[in-house]
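[step 3/7] inverse_fold.run input=structure_tokens len=317
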């Protein structure tokens, strides 16, 4: 049965407190008297979040000694902002309680020492006194401040009936539970899965271009013209020419143009490829499994009472 400080179990306990009130710092009074014995320094809860002990700093009452008070042995007056330690009726009883230190681990043996003191009847009464008082599943502050009815504690448990392996807080309801009064509400809680989605940046893709170079070679065939002059000896060489057919002239006799081709090599850009960039959304389902807790109301009846269940919550039917 592991115990936790309330702030370690639920860091937001102050926001969840009844009417926003923090139980820490409330004054504690002995029994039902006006004798102040200290203040609530902390609260110890079990693994389900139920209040089990109030840590009381006795201050000057017992020279700053810190002791544990089971929640079943207290009465909360929410309107007066007071807690009455029904289980501590006088200073001698508090002095018998083992001292609590903030750094210590509350184990079974230590709890037994605490329980032994509260099981011992106080001097003013022949039987121990407990208080019928409702307690919420996860906090004490929030109980109504109607007068509590003292009654003899009938659920005393002997140490021989259990050991550290079998003991549970249900063995001693008068010490760890507060019974509901007539027509008082006992709040039942349940856990539900609340699923939300959060959009976060998973990555980034940058697309750019770079220029690569290569050496290119091209072969272009070109033509060039040239003049060929051939001198030959006619067959009638040495024959006489008829007078009048001879035309002697000076200067240009024939004209012929000469051409050649030259290579024209230049660079020009062409479209080689086109790239389209887009995003696609892939859909997936994430499965999560958690263990949910729900409190159920246990109604113990004796005799033949009339129980009206007409307004019972559908979850509890």
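[step 3/7] decode complete -> sequence:
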């Amino acid at each position: 049965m592991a115990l936790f400080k309330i702030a370690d179990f639920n860091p937001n306990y102050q926001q969840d407190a009844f009417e926003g009130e923090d139980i820490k710092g409330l004054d504690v009074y002995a029994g039902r008297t006006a004798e102040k014995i200290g203040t609530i320094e902390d609260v110890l809860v079990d693994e389900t979040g139920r209040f089990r002990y109030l840590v009381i700093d006795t201050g000057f009452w017992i020279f700053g000694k810190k002791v544990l008070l089971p929640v079943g042995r207290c009465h909360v007056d929410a309107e007066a902002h007071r807690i009455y330690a029904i289980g501590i009726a006088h200073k001698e009883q508090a002095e018998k309680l083992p001292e609590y230190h903030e750094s210590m681990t509350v184990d079974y043996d230590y709890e037994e020492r605490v329980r032994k003191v509260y099981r011992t009847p106080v001097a003013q009464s022949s039987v121990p006194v407990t208080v019928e008082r409702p307690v919420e599943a996860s906090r004490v502050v929030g109980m109504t401040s109607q007068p509590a009815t003292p009654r003899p504690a009938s659920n005393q448990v002997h140490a021989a009936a259990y050991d550290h392996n079998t003991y549970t807080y249900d063995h001693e309801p008068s010490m760890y539970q507060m019974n509901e009064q007539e027509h008082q509400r006992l709040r039942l809680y349940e856990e539900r899965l609340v699923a939300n989605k959060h959009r976060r940046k998973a990555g980034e893709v940058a697309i750019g271009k770079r220029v690569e170079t290569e050496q290119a070679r091209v072969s272009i065939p070109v033509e060039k013209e040239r003049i060929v002059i051939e001198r030959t000896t006619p067959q009638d060489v040495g024959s006489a020419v008829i007078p009048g057919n001879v035309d002697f002239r000076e200067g240009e006799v024939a004209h012929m143009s000469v051409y050649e081709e030259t290579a024209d090599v230049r660079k020009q850009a062409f479209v080689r490829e086109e790239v389209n960039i887009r995003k696609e959304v892939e859909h997936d389902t994430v499965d999560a499994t958690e263990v949910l807790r729900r409190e159920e109301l246990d109604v113990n009846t004796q005799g033949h009472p009339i129980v009206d269940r007409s307004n019972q919550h559908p979850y509890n039917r």
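[step 4/7] annotate
The longest strand covers residues 36-45.
Confidence is low (pLDDT under 50) at residues 123-155, 179-188.
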